[in-house]
Design a protein that fits this description.
Structural class: alpha/beta
Oligomer: single chain
Order of helices and strands: HHEEEEEEHHEHE
Distance between the termini: 162 Å
Strand content: 25-35%
Number of domains: 2
Length: about 250
């Protein structure tokens, strides 16, 4: 007699039912997982939308073209556009007196070399000086100024120093040399004004500023010069010849 047991009809029926139940449970779990994933993705999207609403991205600042142009011009600070080199001879003197009687005179002759620089102070440019009309940018420049005057001390020298008869004049070489140097600076500035250095600085400034802005991407730039202020040269004293120091008694 065989030991193999014959499956009953009930057992044969349970086997496919168990498979169907297992398959149904797996499908339900898969559906639930997909549903949860969709809910999680939707929740993330809603959370991101709420975060964007509560924390909006700050707007990028808009830069006024006039402000940008002014900042660019001011970056150049003082712009030297004309230089005049000069050489001049300055005589100076100092007397020695007894009361009202002059008993001796010291004379110093100074050969001076130096230069005067003229240009415009770009820090004075304001936004109101910039006009934008379509594709054209107009910049009104400040009036030209004497920016600097300086002696070339290495090339300047005392040419002659004379204390007069019996050296009765006062020994005042350092004092007279300083006086000569001061008179030299005044004379150089006065000569620069008379020879039109400020006008040349204006003409050059128009070209330089236009080139500066065009190289930076601006188009159709027009730099408009302002005539020199008459007071600029009027403030320069007219030195007497020769420059003299107070007499020694």
């Amino acid at each position: 007699m065989s030991d193999r047991r014959t499956a009953s009809p009930l057992q044969r029926l349970l086997t496919p039912l168990q498979f169907l139940l297992w398959a149904g449970t797996g499908s339900a779990l898969l559906f639930l997982a997909l549903a949860l994933a969709d809910l999680r993705q939707a929740g993330t999207s809603v959370s991101a939308s709420v975060d964007r609403w509560l924390n909006p991205t700050p707007a990028q600042p808009e830069i006024d073209p006039s402000t940008a142009i002014v900042q660019q011009i001011r970056h150049a600070s003082e712009l030297t556009t004309a230089v005049m080199a000069m050489e001049t001879v300055i005589p100076t003197r100092k007397d020695r007196k007894l009361g009202e009687l002059r008993v001796g005179t010291t004379r110093l002759l100074y050969i001076a070399r130096g230069e005067v620089e003229a240009g415009i102070d770009l820090s004075q440019v304001a936004e109101t000086d910039v006009t934008i009309m379509g594709d054209t940018v107009q910049v009104q420049l400040p009036p030209p100024q004497i920016l600097d005057s300086q002696l070339d001390l290495e090339r300047s020298q005392v040419y002659d120093y004379d204390r007069g008869f019996l050296s009765l004049g006062p020994d005042a070489a350092p004092e007279l040399q300083t006086l000569a140097q001061q008179a030299t600076l005044e004379r150089m500035v006065r000569a620069a004004c008379q020879q039109g250095l400020l006008d040349r600085a204006n003409e050059r400034a128009e070209i330089v500023i236009a080139q500066l802005l065009n190289l930076s991407g601006q188009v159709n730039v027009e730099a408009i010069a302002t005539p020199p202020d008459p007071a600029t040269c009027a403030r320069v004293p007219v030195a007497e010849e020769p420059a003299s120091s107070p007499a020694d008694s």
